[in-house]
Specification:
The chain folds into two domains: 5-158, 3-Layer(aba) Sandwich (Rossmann fold), CATH 3.40.50; 174-310, HUPs (Rossmann fold). The protein is 36% helix and 21% strand. It is built from ten helices and eleven strands. Strands 1, 2, 3, 4, 5, 6, 7, 8, 9, 10 and 11 form an eleven-stranded mixed β-sheet that branches. Strand 6, helix 6 and strand 7 form a beta-alpha-beta unit. Helix 6 (183-193) packs parallel to helix 8 (227-243). Mean pLDDT is 82; it is low at 46-56, 136-140, 218-225, 283-288 and 310-314.
Amino acid sequence: MTPMRIVVAYDASPGSDDALFELVRAGLADDSVALIVAATEAGGARPGGASSAASFGARAHRDPARIAMEHAGAVARCGEERLQRLFPTWKISHEVVVAGASDSETDDVPGAVAAAARAFGASLVVTGSHARTLSGGHLLGSVARRLVSESPCSVRVSRARDRPAPSDPPRPLRVLVAYDASPGADVAVDAAAARRWPPGSLCRVVVVVDPVVAHAGADPGAGGVAWKWLRERSAAAVERLARSGLRAEVEIATGDPRRLIAEDALRFGTDVLFVGAHGAGVGAPTLLGSVASALAATAACTVEVVRPAAAGSP
């Protein structure tokens, strides 16, 4: 099987470091290939990190763009070294991307990271939930939301509650999959089932039905969804997840999927939530695509927004 190719958007912030450590619980294969990407902006804005205003002032006579590139290079190398210590069998490299450069196809940091992922052939992009650009702006908030919507592949928005180390004994994890029987939801199920989970890990498949469909009861014509068909598809998803070693169950609720799935993830003590990039609310076409973005922004756990290219990856 082709090794999974992973791009990590890294800026040396605490959130970005948490994203590295949290990958220990992602169930990824030992032969994965990773690229650490540090992004800076053309024009040489003030570098981020630990540099003080005084030290920057002392170097102000130097070319600001050169300073920014040197800093970004140091950050990228640091990220590569830290990830290699966590995953000694992975093949890892680093790259600096410049947003807004004359030879760049993108004008901003999210676009530059997405372009790097595309060029690398990535199947997964990893970012912290709160980070910043190397020139002082905020990475998530802005960049993570943009990556969720514009990345050519799946995106993992990391919210680590602690920092596991490879030497720590693996603890059972709690995995939640948002499901609506759409092709996008099936891709999310397949992505979760392809991972390696510690023994005893639990999985909950959550189906949220639009109230209009729920009110119609068993009428197969309501929104194109029949209750019996939905239960059968959900049960099949549970079976696929159980074959991967997860103890899986299904829950069907009625309401707004953006709110109910986030609430269920919190109650379940979820470690990671898988959701298709399109779909997650049954019978509400206007919500398709918005559910994944909302969960990536508001869920209290790590969220993987899954696109088809990542399904079945190791």
